[in-house]
Amino acid sequence: MGVLQVRAIQSFADDPALAPYGSMRRMQEHREAGIFVAEGHQVVERLLRSPLPVESLLLPPPWFERLRPLIQARPEPEIKVFLAHKALLETLTGFELYQGVLAVGRTPAPLSVETLLRSAGRPAFLLAIDGVTSADNMGQLVRTAAAFAVQGIIASNTSCSVWLRRTVRTSMGAVFQMPVVEHASLPESLALLKAQGIRIVAAHPHTDKRLLSEAVLTGDVCLLVGSEGHGISPETLRLADECAAVPMSAGVDSLNVNAATAVFLYEAARQRSRS
């Protein structure tokens, strides 16, 4: 157990360690500093239970008392805890906060595709994401992937970061345990997977090849999904070993990317449980 430095605050000028909470709209600064902000008591609690380093917390006094045992159990030699009531926190941050529970953590070291493959084991079960720029969609994809035991995610350099505040929040902290390769060249990454014998199955609503129920999702496989607006880029789609679509009613030609991914991952989990 390390030392807790606990103090009440009135403004972000009270301590330099409060700066990340005042710059939550300037996510590039957070990325360059290698930090992220966790929001909400469930997300913060999962951060405290995770192996990721925690730098500070900012929360109302009652929430501090509730989370104190987890904070005190952290391995860091020192954690700063700042106390303020929710109304003041909303004024200072400029955001409407549901509970007013915030924390700053450090992002993990960048992960390579090669390292992901070594840690994933076999049969590999991966998710590749192409061009998803919505933080909410990205967070939902991470949470969905975790729910279906995906071993790791490869996110394209045209996708948003999984460490955006909204992404972390929408993932409900699943990102703390999910290995993610960020800012990847998907064509290069998928070519590397294929060289290792991993099949690429693309979720594509307009394929004329086969329905999802006909796709083979057992063995070493990586599911490839794209954004709702632009789908999977042609360069990346060419690397797919097969494309499959979710059957839908007439007049409906697509699903939300997270909904479609959930259907695909459920089918994959069903097939894999029987293989």
What can you see in these coordinates?
It is built from eleven helices and eleven strands. α3 (41-49) runs parallel beside α4 and α7 (135-147) runs parallel beside α11. The chain folds into two domains: 3-106, 2-Layer Sandwich (60s Ribosomal Protein L30, Chain: A); 113-274, SPOUT methyltransferase, trefoil knot domain (Alpha/beta knot, 3-Layer(aba) Sandwich), CATH 3.40.1280.10. The mean pLDDT is 93. The strands form two sheets. It has a six-stranded parallel beta sheet, with helices on both faces. It has a five-stranded mixed beta sheet with strand order 1-4-3-5-2. With 275 residues, it is of the alpha/beta class.
Short summary of the structure?
The protein is α/β, with parallel strands linked by helices and 275 residues long.
Task: Output the keywords.
11 helices; 5-stranded mixed sheet; about 280 residues; alpha/beta; 6-stranded parallel sheet; Alpha/beta knot; 60s Ribosomal Protein L30, Chain: A
Distinct helical segment count: 11
Mean of residue pLDDT values: 93
Radius of gyration: 20 Å
Work out the strand percent: 15-25%
Helicity range = 25-40%
Largest sheet properties = 6 strands, parallel
Cα shape:
elongated
Secondary structure layout plus pairing:
Elements lengths: L2 E6 L10 H4 L4 H7 L1 E5 L1 H9 L4 E6 L1 H12 L5 E6 L2 H8 L8 E5 L6 H8 L4 E6 L4 H13 L4 E5 L8 H6 L9 E5 L1 H10 L3 E5 L17 E6 L7 H4 L4 E3 L12 H18 L1
Parallel strand pairs: 1-4, 3-4, 6-7, 6-10, 7-8, 9-10, 9-11
Antiparallel strand pairs: 2-5, 3-5
Helix pairs in contact: 3-4, 7-11
